[in-house]
């Protein structure tokens, strides 16, 4: 089976940096994905880490360490529009390749 | 390219009734997945279809069922509705179902908000 743990909520001010951790328990998976969801909206894809290391996409970066069963999403130069929920997800080989999401982290950006 | 569409957007039903939700994936996408989202449980996987075949199923009772048509459009059905079935039901499509890489990127529709009274 698999389980993905994320902090439930993070608060930060504009311009700050936020790191959202995702720890997982699974015997094998394809990669770690991150999705963003604004209130009332649908989740949208942010990033995908197939291999260990850092992937950078503009102000957002994502990191994966398979040996530590750990990944994170880094939000830099926070803007008010970054207030949203962020979900990590894996496609777990041991669970028939089902895509499983973490519980989500609500990020609140304050002026 | 048009995005994923879901109908209806909002639905109110009473306990014991049944409901059918529809999803049209992005053109060319053959994989369709369904999720239930509630404030307390987050995004819960319901099922996944690829080329009309159910490839994966989540831990939901048999009242929840689905199917995919030859044009990749998908429907899910919930019979004998319960109060706890009130949720946002999201459909997502992707190019492929298994493997590594960006082909697994899920494109979500706006969801159907189901309220069971």
What does the model show?
Chain A has 111 residues and is mainly β. Chain A is built from no helices and 11 strands. Chain A is 0% helix and 60% strand. In chain A, strands 2, 4, 5, 9, 10 and 11 form a 6-stranded mixed sheet that branches. Chain A has a 5-stranded antiparallel sheet with strand order 1-3-8-7-6, with no helix packed on it. Chain A is globular, with a radius of gyration of 13 Å. Chain B has strands at residues 5-7, 10-13, 19-24, 31-38, 42-50, 53-57, 64-68, 74-78, 87-94, 107-108, 112-116. Chain B is built from no helices and 11 strands. The A-B interface holds A 30-31, 33, 35, 41-45, 48, 50, 87, 91, 96-104 and B 33, 35, 42-43, 45, 48, 55-56, 58, 90, 92, 97-102, 104-111.
Give the secondary structure arrangement, pairings included:
The complex is a heterodimer of chains A (111) and B (117).
Chain A: E1 3-5, E2 9-13, E3 18-25, E4 29-37, E5 44-49, E6 53-57, E7 60-65, E8 70-75, E9 84-92, E10 98-101, E11 105-110
Parallel strand pairs in A: 2-11
Antiparallel strand pairs in A: 1-3, 3-8, 4-5, 4-9, 6-7, 7-8, 9-10, 9-11
Chain B: E1 5-7, E2 10-13, E3 19-24, E4 31-38, E5 42-50, E6 53-57, E7 64-68, E8 74-78, E9 87-94, E10 107-108, E11 112-116
Parallel strand pairs in B: 2-11
Antiparallel strand pairs in B: 1-3, 3-8, 4-5, 4-9, 5-6, 7-8, 9-10, 9-11
